[in-house]
Design a protein that fits this description.
single chain
């Protein structure tokens, strides 16, 4: 089970931190990550982290330098720190887990999804 929280409405330039509380089974998945989906658009990978490869963290080009993914295994929680938010970051954000050992920012590699949390950025 994956449960997101932290979504909100903010002004451009603001920050948010999303949290994803995971079951003990899922927090130990090989790949954990965040995806987002804006209205009328396909779901896209934002960031992911590989449990087995140190420093194997991937970001979408559009969020590099602004977003940071992290994990606190003791709290069974995955985070996404989002800084300098832009209106184009507006979307439903989903936590995702994959059993694959190679982490890809591709929705078709995901085995488990959270229900999503809405982020709205106004200009």
């Amino acid at each position: 089970q994956l449960m997101e929280s932290g979504g909100d409405s903010v002004q451009a330039g603001g920050s948010l931190r999303l949290s994803c509380r995971a079951s003990i089974y899922l927090i130990n998945s090989p790949c954990l990550g965040w995806f987002r989906q804006a209205p009328g658009k396909e779901r896209e990978g934002v960031a992911n982290i590989n449990r087995y490869v140190v420093n194997d963290i991937k970001y979408a080009e559009s969020v590099k330098g602004r977003f940071t993914i992290s994990k606190d295994t003791a709290k069974n929680t995955l985070y996404l720190q989002m800084n300098n938010l832009k209106p184009e970051d507006t979307a439903m954000y989903y936590c995702a887990a994959s059993r694959r050992e190679t982490c890809l920012l591709a929705a078709d590699t995901v085995d488990s999804w959270g229900q999503g949390t809405q982020v709205t950025v106004s200009s």
